[in-house]
Design a protein that fits this description.
The protein is mostly helical. The chain has a domain of 166 residues. The protein has 13 helices and no strands. The mean pLDDT is 87.
């Protein structure tokens, strides 16, 4: 009997820690960090790309040149000069990580004080301007923080006090970062897509998520495979480059692992429908060039968040069709 009060107290703490208000507060803090991730991760990725793929391999390596153009071919001296210039620029660039240096104004370099880094509130107090140079601070910063807080609170409402709420919040954070980076750079880094796949598989294997392990594994395979197949079909039939980037495939694989293969048709329907409407609107009203690719990640992220919060509505149509298909 002595253990009963302790168990009740632990349950009370669990309810408090996973309450909508507590997770909304956590979401504000995570949203602030997501702004850092969206701003810095592409820069870190691009520096690594220049350092490895360009400077150290393609431009400076004679073997790769001769493999492509003949055993006696010599790379032009301009390439060696370009490789040297790239390396010097990389060496002159200050170290950058997600935690260092401290956040600063991109216009004047002013390091933000703790009081200037409070999610949403600091932006409102500063009226959207840097305290040092008065340059405008983008509205997206507080919007990302507020959106993360709202979505975390919704995860608490949908999943209740428990580890699945934390899994859902982690997935939401990854999807938000992916959507914004893809929107800015048409890039979906492996450091965000792969953790989503792992999160889904581990949550299913541990019995935390409502998805069976086999459905999670099948979701990862089908999610990757369906976009890969669509890209190949597009390339073969239209004789154009593959329209689907590998990052999109990994992102959908992560959603399949997290939510099961049954949600994938609904996610693709939402993403393709919304992407088509917005894409046509951009071409007609914003004079977006047809040959300029439109990132698919933001639409997959929206479909994934909707499926996460309303999974049964995404699963029900597929399960209703299974008996007719003999499943």
């Amino acid at each position: 009997m002595a253990g009963a009060p302790a168990a009740a107290a632990a349950a009370d703490w669990m309810v408090l820690l996973f309450s909508p208000w507590a997770l909304a507060l956590l979401g504000l803090c995570i949203g602030s960090f997501l702004n850092v991730v969206v701003h810095r991760l592409p820069t870190m990725y691009m520096r690594g790309w220049w350092a490895f793929d360009i400077a150290d391999f393609a431009l400076a390596d004679k073997r790769s040149w001769r493999s492509a153009f003949g055993a006696k071919a010599e790379p032009p001296v301009e390439l060696a000069a370009a490789a040297g210039a790239i390396n010097r620029q990389l060496e002159a660039s200050p170290p950058l990580s997600l935690t260092s240096p401290r956040s600063r104004c991109p216009h004047c370099g002013h390091t933000l004080r703790v009081s200037e880094n409070v999610p949403v509130l600091s932006w409102l107090v500063l009226r959207g301007r840097c305290s040092a140079c008065r340059a405008p601070i983008g509205l997206r910063y507080p919007l990302v923080e507020a959106a993360t807080a709202v979505l975390f609170a919704l995860c608490a409402v949908v999943f209740g006090p428990g580890w699945m709420a934390l899994v859902a919040c982690t997935a939401v954070a990854l999807l938000l970062a992916m959507a914004l980076i893809d929107l800015d750079y048409t890039l979906l880094p492996d450091s965000l897509t792969i953790p989503l796949v792992v999160l889904g598989l581990v949550a299913a294997l541990a019995g935390i998520s409502p998805v069976a392990w086999r459905d999670a594994a099948a979701g990862a395979l089908v999610g990757y495979g369906v976009l890969w197949a669509l890209g190949v079909i597009w390339a073969v039939l239209l004789r154009k480059p593959n329209a689907m980037a590998e990052g999109d495939m990994k992102m959908l694989a992560g959603l399949g692992a997290l939510l099961g293969w049954q949600v994938l048709p609904g996610i693709l329907l939402v993403a393709a429908g919304l992407g088509s409407v917005i894409g046509i609107g951009l071409i007609v009203f914003a004079k977006h060039k047809r040959e300029t690719p439109i990132p698919f990640g933001p639409y997959l992220a929206l479909g994934g968040v909707l499926a996460l919060l309303m999974r049964e509505r995404f699963v029900a149509p597929v399960e209703d069709m299974l008996p007719m298909l003999g499943g």
